[in-house]
Amino acid sequence: MVPAAVHEKHDPTDSFILQFELTGGLHGPLTGVTLAVKDLFDIKGYPTAFGNPKWLETHAEPAAATAPAVQALLDAGALIVGKTHMDELAYSLNGENFHYGTPVNAAAPGRIPGGSSSGSAVGQRGEGVAAG
C-alpha cells in the first residue's frame, strides 16, 4: 500500500495535524466509513509525532509499518483521512496542546475539547468523521 498524497482540506475545528486519504480493502464491513487516526498510531509512510514537534524533529523518519489496529480498519474497507491532534505525548486530560493549539470544541465553542484524543473527538462532531 503506497501512501496517498498529503493534502489540505478545510478543517474548521483544527482537528487534523496531517490530512491524506488512504484505503486498503475495496470491500468489507467498513466500506464507506471514513476515519481519522490519532497521531499516536503509526501509518506506513507517514510520521508519528505524539503531538510533540521535538519528537517529530528527532524521529523524522516515516513509519515503516502500519499499527495492527489501523491496518485492520483499512483491511475492512475504511477510508483513513488523516492524523488528528492530541495532547502532547498523550499526557493530559484537557485536550490542549502547547505546540499545536487546541482543537475547537464544536459542541461547546469556547470550552476545551477534553481528553488526549481531542482532535479525534472534535473531528467526529465537527466534520462527521468517525474518531479512530
Oligomer status = single chain
> Tally of extended strands?
4
Helix content estimate: 10-25%
Reported for the largest beta sheet, the result is: 4 strands, mixed
GO molecular function: amidase activity
Protein name: Amidase
Pfam families: Amidase (PF01425)
Enzyme class: hydrolase
Structure description:
By secondary structure, this protein is of the alpha/beta class. The protein has one domain. It is built from 3 helices and 4 strands. It has helices at 53-58, 68-75, 118-127, and strands at residues 16-23, 34-38, 79-84, 130-131. Strands 1-3-2-4 form a 4-stranded mixed β-sheet. It starts with 15 loop residues before the first strand and ends with a strand. Residues 125-132 have low confidence and may be disordered.
Per-chain topology:
Blueprint: E1 16-23, E2 34-38, H1 53-58, H2 68-75, E3 79-84, H3 118-127, E4 130-131
Parallel strand pairs: 2-3, 2-4
Antiparallel strand pairs: 1-3
Keywords: Hydrolase
Protein name: Amidase
Pfam families: Amidase
Give a short overview.
This protein is of the alpha/beta class and 132 residues long. The chain has helices at residues 53-58, 68-75, 118-127; strands at 16-23, 34-38, 79-84, 130-131. The longest helix is centred in the C-terminal third of the chain and has 10 residues, at 118-127.
